[in-house]
Design a protein that fits this description.
Keywords: Cytoplasm, Hydrolase, Protease, Serine protease. This is ATP-dependent Clp protease proteolytic subunit. It comes from Paenibacillus spongiae. The chain has one domain: 2-enoyl-CoA Hydratase, Chain A, domain 1 (Alpha-Beta Complex). The chain is 40% helix and 18% strand. Strands 1, 2, 3, 4, 5, 6, 7 and 8 form an 8-stranded mixed sheet that branches. The longest helix is centred in the C-terminal third of the chain and has 27 residues. The radius of gyration is 19 Å and the shape is globular. The protein starts with a strand and ends with a helix.
């Protein structure tokens, strides 16, 4: 279970959110996807007072699953540190705020935007969904508001949400209470979900192409090594 790493009975535990955030085990496409039940299982195994490190590199996913993970982690009384290793986008940008402390490298990214939904129905259904999405957005904004640095107004964040805003670690610190550290070498998680967003920074897309090329080169090298055996 890649999302779970309990080191030992006296050390801290680790939670990795390195894929999509999904509603249940049945919704997982890869073993890196994370559902609320994964987090519940982890917390039940480590005990309520154990410190927890949360590592995030995710393009988002289910809003309600993400909010459930946030609330589950928020209730955990052990000291929590969240690390944004590469990307905290969409609903995964909410999860770090469940921690007592957030650490983000200067070259990592956070993306905030209005919640999405796909649906079919009549005009009444669409009007209701628009109202529901507005209420969901306000719930997300409430989390952001609790973690603003002094002098930042929630209306500023609301405008950033409306525009789909991508900010690096240094910029995140202008708005939210985080600790910025030096750049790391962990690539942001650029999945098909992330590529569907509107304003993905070109440097992240370039990083995705480089990562894909490196993977292809590694595969070719492994093939050559096998041929030599």
């Amino acid at each position: 279970m890649k999302w779970l790493n309990v080191k030992n009975a006296v050390d801290k535990a680790e939670l990795y959110i390195y894929g999509d955030i999904v509603g249940s085990e049945w919704d997982k496409w890869t073993d890196t996807d994370t559902a609320p039940e994964d987090v519940l299982t982890l917390l039940s195994e480590i005990g309520e007072n154990k410190p927890l490190d949360i590592y995030i590199n995710s393009g988002g996913g289910s809003v309600f699953a993400g909010l459930a993970i946030y609330n589950i982690l928020k209730r955990h009384p052990g000291y929590k540190i969240a690390y944004i290793d590469g990307l905290a986008a969409s609903i995964s940008s909410v999860i770090p705020f469940a921690a007592n402390k957030i650490i983000i490298p200067s070259n990592s990214f956070m993306m905030i935007h209005k919640p999405w939904n796909w649906m079919a129905g009549n005009a009444n259904d669409y009007r209701k969904m628009a109202d529901d999405l507005d209420r969901i957005e306000q719930g997300i904004l409430n989390v952001y508001q609790e973690n603003l640095v002094d002098g930042v107004d929630i209306e500023t964040i609301r405008g950033m949400v409306n525009a789909e805003t991508w900010i690096n670690g240094n910029e995140v610190a202008n708005y939210f209470r985080v600790e910025v550290v030096g750049a790391n070498n962990i690539a942001a998680s650029i999945t098909d979900r992330v590529k569907a967003y509107t304003n993905v920074p070109q440097e992240l897309l370039n990083q995705s192409h480089v990562s894909k090329r490196q993977d292809e080169e590694q595969i070719e090298l492994m093939k050559m090594q096998l041929e030599l055996l």
